[in-house]
UniProtKB/TrEMBL annotation:
Its main location: membrane. Keywords: Cell membrane, Membrane, Transmembrane, Transmembrane helix. It holds the Pfam family MFS_1. Residues 4-378 form the Major facilitator superfamily (MFS) profile domain. SUPFAM superfamilies: MFS general substrate transporter. This is MFS transporter. It comes from Streptomyces chisholmiae. It is found in: Cell membrane. Coiled coil: none annotated.
């Protein structure tokens, strides 16, 4: 696997650590900004809306920009948003900061996934996506607990400053580890990339991704108050629970990444069924510590870890271009919006268990969107998509780095 793929994962790690930070510091931020916990939850929604709407627009502007230059520019914008959050004097300023960081993060996801597809062949795109998305899982495992711990010890503003430093480190790694000019099979063309959105299979894939992530975030957005107010854990225990949850997502991502290329739809069906059961179980048993922790870990194993399979499905339905990847990421983020927004409304109406039941319901809906892929026509379509045309085979056959290979140096096949 090219080194650049791992560097891209580091960038995702920085982005996700900031995105999830709010979920880990809800009570502290609510007190510091003099607002309710549900209003802090809406910051997650605002971040997600900015990603969904602003990310694709920004990606259009970056379509002809060399990938590394685009990534560095997005790091700069992301840094501005985090500094603004660290110095926010009131809720509106914090809201603006989350919008800025959300737009930058979404475009970064699109560029990173497209570049990973460019640097690897079609048969390895599931694994490459899993490697890049390891940044998401490690953000849950390490970034979120780290930010939560810093926020609890030194104040929530310090957590945003820490993310700012992490952003600078990721930008430096990108400058050194990502090729200055990544070779692509074709010159980017807006009209060509837009044509894939005419395919119904693309929209079914987007719908599934939205509902899978929505089901997970209905619970995860409010894991702190659920675990402290219902289960009875202290606020100091929450970072440890988040570490365990993050470890489960890393393990799940490794497994799904291995299966995504060959069993794209079946792995999602199994994951969605398991997630629905875990979410419903947590809603019933949140007041009992041991089952509650076990069910939380189960959600970590089969929730956001479906990302590699979701990405492969969307790319096979359409292509691996920047616009499709960014649009798909927008629909994934739409799931965050549905989960956090509807979850907040459910809490206000029915209490802290309500978003868990909501998540189980969204998982059942996700299963319905997957059933369309089990028809004979859908299987035939996937078979055609899996067989590249002769014209594209040569372009996609091997991973490519922009840097020339010196005589006697190992080529891409040796990585």
């Amino acid at each position: 696997m090219p080194r650049a793929v791992h560097v891209l994962a580091f960038g995702i790690f920085a982005m996700v650590s900031s995105e999830f930070l709010v979920a880990g510091l809800m009570p502290q931020m609510a007190e510091g900004l003099d607002v309710s916990v549900s209003q802090i939850g809406y910051l997650i929604t605002a971040f997600a809306v900015a990603m969904s709407v602003g990310g694709p627009v920004l990606s259009l502007a970056l379509l002809r920009v060399p990938p590394r230059d685009a990534l560095l520019g997005l790091f700069a914008l992301f840094l501005v948003g985090n500094v603004l959050a660290a110095t926010a004097v009131n809720y509106p300023v914090m809201l603006a900061a989350r919008i800025v960081t959300g737009v930058a993060a979404q475009a970064f996801f699109g560029v990173a996934l497209s570049l990973a597809a460019t640097l690897t062949g079609p048969a390895e795109r599931g694994r490459a996506s899993a490697r890049v998305m390891n940044g998401l899982m490690l953000g849950t495992l390490l970034g979120l607990p780290m930010a939560t711990l810093i926020g609890e010890r030194f104040g929530w503003r310090a957590a945003f400053w820490a993310i700012s430093v992490l952003t600078l480190l990721a930008a430096a790694a990108t400058l050194r580890g990502v090729p200055a000019r990544a070779v692509t099979a074709e010159r980017p063309d807006v009209r060509r990339e837009l044509t894939v959105f005419r395919r119904p299979a693309v929209w079914w894939a987007f719908a599934t991704s939205t509902l899978i992530i929505g089901a997970t975030f209905a619970a995860f957005s409010y894991v702190n108050p659920v675990m402290t107010e219902i289960t009875g854990f202290s606020s100091g225990t929450v970072p440890l629970l988040l570490v365990a949850y993050g470890a489960a997502t890393v393990l799940g991502n490794l497994v799904v990444g291995r299966l995504a290329d060959r069993y794209t739809v079946p792995v999602q069906v199994v994951g969605v069924l398991a997630n629905a059961g875990f979410l419903a179980g947590l809603a019933l048993l949140a007041h009992v510590p041991v089952p509650a922790v076990a069910l939380l870990l189960g959600i970590g194993l089969v929730g956001v870890t479906m990302n590699p399979a979701m990405i492969v499905r969307a790319q096979r339905a359409g292509d691996a271009g920047l616009l499709l990847n960014t649009a798909h990421a927008s629909f994934i983020t739409l799931g965050v919006i549905l989960g956090s927004l509807l979850g907040g409304l459910a809490i206000e109406a029915h209490g802290l268990r309500a978003p868990l039941w909501l998540g189980a319901g969204l998982a059942v809906l996700a299963l319905g969107t997957l059933l369309v892929e089990c028809t004979p026509a859908a299987r035939a379509r996937r078979a055609v998509a899996a067989a590249p045309s002769p014209a594209s085979t040569q372009a996609d056959a091997a991973p490519v780095d922009a840097a020339p290979v010196e005589a006697g140096a190992p080529g891409p096949e040796s990585r």
